[in-house]
Q: What sequence folds into this?
C-alpha cells in the first residue's frame, strides 16, 4: 500500500488534457486490471475506487502487497525496463482508471516539469513506504503491524479527517497484508474495539487513541 500522488500540482487535471496514448477504463469490483506475467506497457492512475496488489509465488501462494486508492499510480515498473507484470492488480470496488502508454508517459514527464517532479516525489514516497513495511514485518509484532496498517488504511496523517475503512477489506486480506492468520486478526480487532481504539461494525472507524498507542508503545499493543 503507498501515499497519494496529490500535491499542489493536480495530476488528474493534467492527465485529463493528455490526448494520444491515454484511455479511460472502468473496472467492476473483482475484475483484474492486469495479471502477473502480463505484458507491461502502460502506467495507470486511479481516478475512483480502490485497487489491491497481489503476488503469486512459484508454489502457488498468494500474498497481498498493497492497497491503492484515488490519486495513486500503479504499473510504473514498465518505466524502468520491466517487460512483464510482477504483480496482479484487482478492483476492490468499482473503479475508474486512466491508462497511459509508456511512450505517452515518457513524453509527459519530459514536457511538463511539474508533473515530472510530482511523479518522482510519488515514487520516492512509495519506496520509503516499502522500506517501512519491510522493517515493520521484521521487527514488530503482528498486533502492532495490524494497528499500523489500520492507521494507514484510514489515512491518518494526511490532509482531512481519517476515513472509515471499507467493509470490502476482509479480515483474511488484513491477515495476508501483515503476515498472520484471519483468526489472529479477529482476536486483535475485538481487542482494539474493547479498548476503544476502533469501532468495528461493517465499516472500521479508527480512533486517534490507536495512533497514540502505536507511537507510545503502550502495553496493550504488545504480544
A:
Amino acid at each position: 500500500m503507498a501515499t497519494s500522488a496529490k500535491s499542489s500540482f493536480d495530476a488528474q487535471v493534467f492527465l485529463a488534457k493528455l490526448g494520444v496514448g491515454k484511455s479511460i477504463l472502468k473496472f467492476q469490483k473483482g475484475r483484474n486490471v492486469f495479471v502477473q506475467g502480463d505484458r507491461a506497457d502502460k502506467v495507470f492512475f486511479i481516478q475512483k475506487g480502490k485497487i489491491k496488489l497481489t503476488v503469486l509465488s512459484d508454489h502457488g501462494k498468494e500474498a497481498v502487497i498493497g492497497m491503492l486508492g484515488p490519486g495513486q499510480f500503479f504499473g510504473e515498473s514498465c518505466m524502468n525496463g520491466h517487460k512483464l507484470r510482477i504483480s496482479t492488480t484487482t478492483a476492490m470496488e468499482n473503479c475508474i482508471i486512466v491508462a497511459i502508454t509508456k511512450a505517452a508517459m515518457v513524453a509527459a514527464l519530459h514536457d511538463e516539469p511539474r508533473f515530472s517532479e510530482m511523479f518522482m516525489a510519488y515514487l520516492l514516497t512509495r519506496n520509503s513506504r516499502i522500506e517501512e513495511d519491510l522493517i515493520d514485518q521484521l521487527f514488530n509484532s503482528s498486533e502492532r503491524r495490524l494497528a499500523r496498517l489500520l492507521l494507514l488504511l484510514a489515512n491518518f496523517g494526511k490532509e482531512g479527517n481519517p476515513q472509515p475503512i471499507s467493509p470490502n477489506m476482509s479480515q483474511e486480506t488484513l491477515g495476508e497484508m501483515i503476515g498472520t492468520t484471519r483468526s489472529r486478526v479477529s482476536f486483535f480487532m475485538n481487542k482494539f474495539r474493547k479498548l476503544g481504539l476502533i469501532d468495528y461494525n461493517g465499516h472500521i472507524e479508527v480512533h486517534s487513541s490507536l495512533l497514540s498507542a502505536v507511537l507510545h508503545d503502550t502495553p496493550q499493543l504488545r504480544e
Q: What stands out?
A: The first strand starts at residue 22 and ends at 27. Helices lie at 11-16, 102-111, 113-139, 142-153, 171-178, 182-194, 208-215.
